[in-house]
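Structural prep section.
Before we set up the soaks we want a predicted structure of the protein with EPS in place, mainly to decide which crystallisation condition to try first. Input record follows.
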Amino acid sequence: MQKLRYFTAGESHGQALIGTIEGLPAGLRISEDDIFQQLQRRQHGHGRGGRMKIETDRARLLTGVRHGKTMGGPVALLIENRDWKNWQTKMAVEEVDGTAAAVVIPRPGHADYAGAVKYAHEDIRNVLERASARETATRVALGTIARKLLSHFDIEIVSHVTRIGSAHNPFSVASLGSRDRMDFDVGQIGERADQSSVRCLDEGVALKMVDEIDAASKAKDTVGGIFEVVALNLPVGLGSHVHWDRKLDTRIAAAMMSIPAMKGVEIGLGFESASMPGSAVHDPIYYDENTGQYYRSRNHAGGLEGGITNGMPLVVGVAMKPISTLMKPLDSVNMQTKDKTAAHIERSDTCAVPAASVVGEAMLALVLADALLEKFGGDSMVELEERYVDWRRQNG
Ligand code: EPS
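Run finished without errors. Recording the tokens verbatim:
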């Protein structure tokens, strides 16, 4: 991140999740209700476990906002863990009499084993509480602030799920050219996905996805998938080709891979492009004399060339592995006794791909807000807007 910095703190069953974000211009409108709406979207989705029935995630804005607008200083927010009341002894900050039953059997695929060895923890709970994807609630809350900033410039971020297990919807925004955008309202993707319990745009495939999740749940197993996050109405020129860590691809891939359980990121055609000739992969460039605009017949590049936005929709595909907490656990070892035994079981979800796609939107919003501030700068929204409008006037 070049201009915005953010931190998260908090454990899954601790008192609260905390987030801070610094580098925001003054005068950005933001409310707790805006954040609540996004947090609600993250809580939904077929395949979620019992925890989501306990929590109604709501962020309180603690600092940096006055009379509905940012003041230019750090914004801090807090999301209470309602479940904390059931964990007060197990997660007490102070020392407790006796010891709560320690978790000593790592779950394959989780941070349990490596985290316990690295931090010399005898109780794996000290690892799993922070490694939990519950932390992504904070990212969605912080991402809402970034999203508000982007929406000021009509930049919109949407997502949809393209795969859960073997159920696959082949539709990708990367297959659409700039002319197609007129016929196919890409902006509607978000609304349509929000209406599906698996965030899938094809109703037939959505039913298959639900079946996959139900079958996994019945088999006490879990299932992963792929989601696509799309940003619309971006100006040309966010990111840069001049240095590895300024490329937007680099920043997006890092942000997506930082979400728990993500195993792969692709931009546009991504992995598929490796097996195709260049002539079939790259997107021809045309110029429309009537509008004075360049346009493309397709968007295999997914809106990025040379690490810079090229004005086409930005298309990011992200693969999520199946959740590693299995109700019918794999083999593991008791790290105290070294005996072979079944892995630890913790209440969890069967599938969190739909929720992860909402987290992906938040992460993309944070990266793009940072890139927008990097390009246009400004200490206040007025200043940022002036620079943006001026640039648009000259560059279209
Ligand atoms: C949660 C994500 C998952 C849930 C968690 C809440 O986290 P994890 O990565 O640890 O599986 O299982 O809920 C619980 C830990 C629980 O007590 O059920 C989230 O997204 O809020």
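Observations: The chain has one domain: 5-395.
Flagged for discussion at group meeting.
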